[in-house]
Amino acid sequence: MQEDGLVSVWIGSAQCLDDWTRAIEVPVSEDGDFAESEFGQAFDLGYYDTDYQEAEFYPSGRSNIDLLLRGVSYDDQVIPAVEKLDHSVTDADNCFALLYNYRYDGGKTEWRGHGVRLRFVGTIRYDPAK
To answer: What does the domain layout of the chain look like in residue ranges?
Structure first.
């Protein structure tokens, strides 16, 4: 559900960029209608504004949160907050999805799709005025 000042965070691994793109891409019909991405369906996200989504794939894993999330919007707030969630990144983790101004409170914590594995890390606060 949309809620200002929050970021919901997913971290995981994808075998290749094509698998990652297929998982997070929001399909659009010929009529211009939007459907849910595989990611959105898997976590039952409902509508979210894709303008407030940041997602990245790296060809190789990152060994810590800072390397994985460096360069995201509000990274000076997001990275320390995610680190406080007591989440450890594995060497296999090479992708993430962030939904800004969105509170995920669904019950699903992990999803395995075609070549992609994502786990919900948590929802954190950020201050867009900073």
So the answer is: 2-125
Span 52-110, pLDDT tens digits: 999 999 998 887 888 999 999 999 999 999 999 867 788 899 999 999 999 999 889 99
Structure tokens at 124: 């954190």
List C-alpha distances in Å: 15 to 48, 65, 72. 26, 19, 22
**Three-state DSSP class for 66?**
helix
DSSP 5-31: EEEEEEEEEESSHHHHHHHH---B-TT
pLDDT at 86: 67
